[in-house]
Specification:
Layout lengths: L2 H21 L9 H25 L1
C-alpha cells in the first residue's frame, strides 16, 4: 500500500470526524464555538491529507 492511499484513507477518516462533530449539537443551544472551530480544523486537515494523497498517487 502506497503512502498516497494511506493519506486518502486518513483524509476520509478526518472528514468523518469533522462530520461527527458538526452533527453533535445540543438540543437547545445548538453548536458551541469550540465545536465549530474543531470541526473546521478537522475539515481543513481532511482536505490537505486527501489532496496530498491524490498528488502522491499521480
Amino acid at each position: 500500500m502506497t503512502s498516497g492511499v494511506v493519506l486518502v484513507v486518513f483524509g476520509g477518516f478526518l472528514l468523518g470526524g469533522a462530520w461527527s462533530i458538526w452533527k453533535a449539537d445540543h438540543d437547545t443551544k445548538g453548536r458551541t464555538g469550540p465545536q465549530v472551530v474543531f470541526a473546521v480544523i478537522l475539515l481543513l486537515a481532511a482536505v490537505l491529507a486527501t489532496a496530498a494523497g491524490v498528488l502522491r498517487l499521480i
